Inverse folding.
């Protein structure tokens, strides 16, 4: 499972704690897996969360959407595919697709929108080091398509 120049792919296994009484993945776990994908995509771009916090900003989620397509079950291997869709002066949007291991069946798809905020919650512009990195990523994405 190799990452493309624009899509980060993370492999996760559904564990017992991820499932509900019906034996299927509890719906909130998809958002947790979105976070794994987002964190690893940013890490791949050199934007590690701990490093971003040293610039005194955070990326709180301001909106989340998940369309559940096919339930996943205990011990399934899932692929979380993550891309940056766009960014604006003070916000950033990630898109996600959660596939089965063979990437032939979509379990869920969605997005998260993030504000750029100071530690005290004030909305600010994304720092230049961040925007330059994301611009380069989006240019690769455009050229890759």
């Amino acid at each position: 499972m190799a990452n493309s120049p624009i899509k980060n792919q993370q492999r996760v296994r559904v564990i017992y704690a991820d499932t509900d009484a019906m034996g299927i993945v509890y719906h909130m776990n998809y958002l947790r897996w979105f976070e794994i994908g987002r964190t690893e995509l940013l890490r791949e771009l050199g934007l590690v969360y701990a490093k971003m916090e040293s610039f005194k900003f955070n990326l709180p989620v301001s909106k989340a959407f998940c369309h559940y397509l096919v339930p996943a079950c205990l011990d399934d291997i899932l692929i979380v595919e993550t891309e940056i869709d766009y960014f604006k002066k003070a916000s950033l949007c990630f898109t996600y697709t959660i596939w089965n291991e063979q990437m032939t069946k979509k379990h869920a798809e969605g997005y998260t929108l993030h504000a750029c905020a100071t530690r005290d919650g004030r909305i600010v512009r994304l720092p230049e080091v961040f925007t330059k990195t994301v611009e380069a990523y989006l240019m690769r994405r455009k050229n890759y398509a």
Summary: The two ends are 19 Å apart (CA to CA).
